[in-house]
Amino acid sequence: MTRLDAQFPVSGPRGYEPPRPTASAAVLALLRVALRGDGDLLSLLPASAYRAAIGPLGYSRRQILIVNQPDQVRRVLSDPEGIFPKSDLMVAALAPLIGDSIFVSSGDTWRRQRRMIDPAFTMMRVNRAFPAMQQGADACEDMLDGHARDDAALSLDLAMSHLTADIICRTVFSTGLETGAAHAVFDAFTVFEHSVAQVEIRRLIMDRAWTAVPQRDFVLAACDTIRRQLGDLLDTHLGPDGAHFDDIAAAVIAARDDFTRTAFTREELIDQLGVLFLAGHETSASALTWAVFLLAMQPDLVARIRAEIRQLAGDGDPITFEMTKQLPTIRNAFRETLRLYPPITFLPRVATEATTIGHTKVRRGALVMVAPWVLHRHARYWRDPHRFDPDRFLPERERELTPGAYIPFGLGPRVCAGAAFAQAEAVLLIARLFRRFDFQVINAAGVRPAARLTTRPAEQIMVRVRRIAP
């Protein structure tokens, strides 16, 4: 495995280091994951992955490479040669949920879909979506007030999932997601993420490239539940009153192919809207869960955040869209959260022909792994890489940052179109929630990250909330 010389001197632990898997030798990591049996890909990463430039990732029948050099990361994700599409394992895993949609398609199919959907992306402009974020925050505060009054514990994961699902529904479909549907989507996605065949370690290690990946019946049932909820929301726009909507769903329904002038079918609409829903819901929920957890463990940082909000908006003035651009402590705390816990842990690609990456030979069918989790914690690019340090993003420390080593939203033509939306949403929600509430983590010692499709706590984080005095 190609190594990189250390850019920063080795230093002892300083400040708060949040939970992470213990990295070990490749064989020990494999045995640990096999014995645990929970499909956690983070625990499969050997210690050498955090120091390597490019090299093999553990032991497998199929060649698996991890790429940590920023210039080669850009080449793989930008894919100017057209030889690194989304991995066959990811495509097969997500097909029952989002079909051959824009998130997994490639080549001419992807370009056609992107042209059709681009007008809808303009409707995700933050100033247009901000009222939906405010409405979602209002509903979440009401829910947290009830838990504070009753001194009742709640799942932070579920609360953030419900909140982001509500906001993305308001943005895409012009309606909130009622509580029963939100719980159904959360439960179904939890089943899907834990059990989808992409994260079966045996398949990852033993199968050849492009081996068919059968999904189990209960995984398919979970996909059906999510698609049924999305279909119910879509049908409100396809009925006689559909012409009155002016939102993302209406824009995708109105999309036409440039050449054939054909529209998406109902199933294709569910595919495409499913991508927008899950990207705006699941990844945002992951990031916010970790952000609230990290801040709950750092009361001094929360005090800085509250002082910043008070200076800007007093004790009770609304937090406006313009104000979200003037809360640097929250913005940097969220950027650091995305560094340590990137929602999309791995960006797997497959080599459709033999090639080289740097000086490493790549066989046809190789699984090429770009891992934001690893790149963001790489010893070459980050000082105290496992430490939670929002101030590393201050302008005066900008020289410490390595270009291309921070990719929470991906790179290249497939970079996340909702990046600005996600960042504005997070700043607003963190400001709103911590302005009014303290969060006490009940099971802090047992919190452990796990990666399957997204970076989530291995077990739900339970918290109590307390309303603070105005």
Number of strands: 11
Which overall shape is indicated by the principal axes computed on the Cα atoms? globular
Alpha-beta classification: alpha+beta
User: N-to-C SSE series?
Assistant: HEEHHHHEHHHHHHHHEEEEHHEEEE
- Report Rg: 22 Å
* Alpha-carbon distance between the two ends: 56 Å
Low-confidence stretches: 8-13
Mean pLDDT: 88
Number of helices: 15
CATH architecture: Orthogonal Bundle
Total domains, how many? 1
Write the CATH homologous superfamily. Cytochrome P450
Side by side, the strands of the main sheet go 1-2-7-4
* The CATH top-level class label: Mainly Alpha
Task: Assign the CATH topology.
Answer: Cytochrome p450
**What proportion strand?**
5-15%
The percent range for helix content is 40-55%
Tell me about the largest β-sheet: 4 strands, mixed
Written description of the protein model:
This protein has 470 residues and is of the alpha+beta class. The protein has a single domain, classed as Cytochrome p450, CATH 1.10.630.10. The chain contains 15 helices and eleven strands. The protein has helices at 26-36, 70-78, 88-98, 107-121, 126-150, 156-173, 179-195, 201-206, 217-238, 248-254, 266-296, 299-313, 328-340, 372-375, 419-436, and strands at 54-56, 64-67, 154-155, 347-350, 355-357, 360-362, 367-370, 437-441, 449-451, 455-457, 462-467. It has a four-stranded mixed beta sheet with strand order 1-2-7-4. Strands 3-11-8 form a three-stranded antiparallel beta sheet. The protein has a two-stranded antiparallel sheet with strand order 5-6. A hairpin with a 7-residue loop joins β1 and β2. α5 packs antiparallel against α6 and α9 packs across α11.
